[in-house]
Specification:
By secondary structure, the chain is an alpha/beta fold. The chain has one domain. Helix content is 32%, strand content 17%. It is built from six helices and eight strands, in the order βαβαβαβαβββαβα. It has helices at 27-35, 43-46, 63-67, 82-99, 133-140, 151-161, and strands spanning 4-7, 38-41, 56-59, 72-75, 103-106, 117-119, 127-129, 144-147. The strands form three sheets. Strands 2-1-5-8 form a four-stranded parallel sheet, sandwiched between helices. The chain has a two-stranded antiparallel sheet with strand order 3-4. β1 (4-7), α1 and β2 (38-41) form a beta-alpha-beta unit. It starts with a strand and ends in an 11-residue tail after the last helix.
Length: 172
């Protein structure tokens, strides 16, 4: 059975920077939960950040630039939390690999989890195209990342993967 790494906030855990959750409800998501496919993970909390915590944005690029060392993740007070975001991304990748997940369903807009849109680093609520730090690392490892708005695409990929055996070593 294919597993899906999923942002903990999407399964209802109050781990977001503001102490809230952003649960996804309904059809496909609830079916995957009932089937035991979901592997909840919060890279920011796992990376060492508290709940609640100051808002953070990527300054100088997106998650790929953070991985390349050309951008930083800063809080609205200017504190550099890049190391925590990188640690959380590495732990998320390890969780995906342990579970055998080839798909991740992550929270859009997050500096960790975004797969289409982040904020521009000015803390003015201005969205820009880009990936979060965890998304960038997962994608580099060959894991396909989707936002919570892409459930139908995830379901199509799940069906496809379940008819194609995984390549490489099996998870431990």
């Amino acid at each position: 059975m294919e597993r899906i790494l999923v942002s903990s906030c999407l399964v209802g855990r109050p781990v977001r920077y503001d102490g809230a959750a952003r649960p996804v409800a309904g059809g496909l998501f609830e079916r995957w939960r009932a089937e035991g496919r979901l592997v909840p993970f919060c890279p920011e909390v796992s990376g060492g950040l508290a709940v609640p915590r100051p808002p953070a944005e990527i300054v100088g690029g997106d998650g790929h630039a953070v991985l390349d060392g050309t951008a930083q993740v800063l809080t609205d007070a200017g504190e550099d939390v890049t190391a925590e975001f990188l640690r959380g991304a590495e732990l998320a990748l390890a969780a995906a690999q342990r579970s055998g997940a080839r798909i991740a369903l992550l929270k859009e807009g997050s500096p960790s989890c975004a797969s289409h849109r982040i904020y521009d680093g000015t803390f003015t609520g201005t969205p820009v195209a880009g990936d979060g730090v965890t998304t960038a690392l997962l994608e580099r490892a060959g894991i396909q990342v989707f936002s919570e708005k892409d459930l139908t695409a995830v379901d199509s990929l799940l069906r496809s993967l379940e008819t194609t055996p995984p390549s490489g070593p099996l998870p431990a």
